Amino acid sequence: MTFRPLRLLLCIALLVGLITNIKASKSSSLSITDNDIRDCPSVQQLSSLKLAMEEGESPVMRKIFAWLFPFGPAWNSVLGTFYISSVPNFILAFIPAQINGDTLNTMTAFATGGLLSDVFLHLVPHSFMGEHQESGAHFVMVEEKRNILVGLGIFLGFAAFFFMEKSLRVLGGGEEDSHSHGGHSHSHSVIETSVAETTGMSVSSSSSSQSQLKSRNKSAADSSNAKAIQSTPSSTVNASSKLSAYLNLFGDFVHNITDGLAMAASFYASPLIGATTTLACFAHEIPHEIADYSILIRSGFTKKQAMQSQFVTAIGAFVGTFIGIAVRNAASSSSSSEEMEGLDLAAGIRQDANGLLGTTLLLADLVIPFVAGGFLYIGAVAVLPTLLADSKSGKQALREFAAMFFGVLCMFLVAWNE
Fold first, then answer.
1. C-alpha distances in angstroms, 214 versus 187, 207, 219, 324?
2. pLDDT digit string (tens) for 174-219?
3. Long-range pairs for 55-58 at CB < 8 Å and ≥24 separation?
4. Under the phi-then-psi rule, with left for phi > 0, alpha for psi from -120 to 50, and beta for the rest, what region is 131?
5. pTM, whole model, 2 decimals?
6. Rounded mean pLDDT of 31-56?
7. Rounded CA gap, 331 and 365, in Å?
8. pLDDT band at 156 (very low <50, low <70, confident <90, very high)
9. Where is the signal peptide, in residue numbers (predicted)?
């Protein structure tokens, strides 16, 4: 009699397990793609409404971008790299060797506004929500695990640029005369540094030596020490400045590679992302090239040598662009069959999709978040402290505020009127 309840419980457990397996098999066989969502009647009606609205508009920026970038994503990324690499270097021919620090700070503030607005208005939204090139309405399924990986990609870009700058500072001996972010050095103390290099001593050391000479009653020992200080050869200072200049050129080359990767990734994402990233990089490259140009001049380079060095480092941008194109083509060829069938949304919910850690996020989708993290580091960590360090005049601060907000406004209008 005691065995009957046990048998009954065992049969119930087997029945429950069988039902669970049947439900699991049904859920594992469920496949709903984004193409199925696009074919829904409600989505088709919204797409028709959006197409009708777009036909009545004539976006000016879309026509301008179509004229500036008339090719496919690969050639458009090469063309965008040419824009951001050649034009700022040609501008150097009209820049004097000694540029006003306030002018350079104002240009840097404008570039920072454009760069950060490109991050928050274009790159970060695209990283999470995507940017569709097809016409009509589009819907995105919220996938929590995918969003975590996207956020991790943004942090990896931020950390990679920190590692790059930290390594360059260690190699350069921790010099504080330039603020280098992956090769992008913004040094605005042109007059003080040039005086220190030509005399062989710093401003503080010269003032201290003068006070010592006044306090002592013209002793022979002090006069000989003063002569020794003034006659100190500047070869060691010139050697260290040369080393910092070459390290700056190397860092500039490495950072230009990341710019090229950003060009390729943005144009393969969408024409709008590519065009706005080109504008942001272009606005940032002009003050950056001028700052690097002034560093090379102070390090003993002639104007011709400085311009030639800047053109050589610009090759890194094309190297990064071609690497990005090759990676994107390899990724697209491997996932071409999946793109034809559509993205399996049910697999993303079950976390058994073909992407990273069972999500629908592919490795190529992390390039834009990586670029966003890098640009965020450049604008917020590497450039803004230089503007805060040179806070001497209220009028100059107002000019920098206005320049920064003007950069944000330009990027906002570009995105809004696309």
1. 34, 11, 10, 63
2. 554 444 444 444 444 443 444 344 333 343 444 444 444 344 444 4
3. none
4. beta
5. 0.66
6. 78
7. 10
8. very high
9. 1-24
Of the candidates 182, 158, 159, the residue with the CA atom closest to the CA atom of residue 171: 182
- Dist CA 248 CA 251 (whole Å): 5
What's the chain look like in SS3?
A: CCHHHHHHHHHHHHHHHHHHHHHHHHHHHCCCEHHHHHCCHHHHHHHHHHHHHHHCCCCHHHHHHHHHCCCCHHHHHHHHHHHHHHHHHHHHHHCCCCCCHHHHHHHHHHHHHHHHHHHHHHHHHHHHHCCCCCCCCCCCCCCHHHHHHHHHHHHHHHHHHHHHHHHHHHHCCCCCCCCEECCEECCCCHHHHHHHHHHCCCHHHHHHHHHHHHHCCCCHHHHHHHHHHHCCCCHHHHHHHHHHHHHHHHHHHHHHHHHHHHHHHHHHHCHHHHHHHHHHHHHHHHHHHHHHHHHHHHCCCCHHHHHHHHHHHCHHHHHHHHHHHHHHHHHHHHCHHHHHHCCEHHHHHHCCCCCHHHCCCCHHHHHHHHHHHHHHHHHHHHHHHHHHHCCCCHHHHHHHHHHHHHHHHHHHHHHHCC
Structure tokens at 216: 């002592």
Cβ-contact 244, 169 below 8 angstroms = no
Cβ burial 130-158 (10 Å sphere, 16+ → b, else e): ebeeeeebbeeeebebbeebbeebbeebb
Q: Which two tokens stand for residue 168?
A: 């360059």
Tokens of residue 247, six digits: 């390290």
The pLDDT value recorded for residue 391 is: 75
**183: its two tokens:** 């090769």
d(CA 17, CA 381): 56
Q: Which two tokens stand for residue 386?
A: 């230089």
pLDDT tens for 225-254 read: 444 444 444 454 455 566 667 767 777 787
Strand-pairing partners, residue 180, are: 185
Distance of alpha carbon 57 from alpha carbon 241, whole angstroms: 56
The amino acid occupying position 403 is: A
